[in-house]
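Changelog note: in this version the structure field was regenerated for every chain. One regenerated record is shown below for reference.
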Amino acid sequence: MATQGRPLCDADAGTDGEVLTIVGDGRVPSRLRELGLTPGTGLRVVRRAPMGGAIVVQVRGFTLALRRDEAALVQLSAIGVPALAGGGDA
């Protein structure tokens, strides 16, 4: 069974995922890897700014805001939306 990736920029707030790969080998993909977005790393999408703005994720114990074009370079696998404990968005 092959693993299909999905761009981080398409994930909704509250989504849990795991980094499958970072697309490209330029300056931005390299920096994303330096920030800890490496294959196998779990993350959670905390918030998405309206109108295509920043995407805020929790990864390796810290919060990171990425531009939409940066988030498009991060391919996720095992995307899932956890059950809401309190209901609604914060």
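Spot check on this record: The first helix runs from residue 27 to 34. Confidence is low (pLDDT under 50) at residues 83-90.
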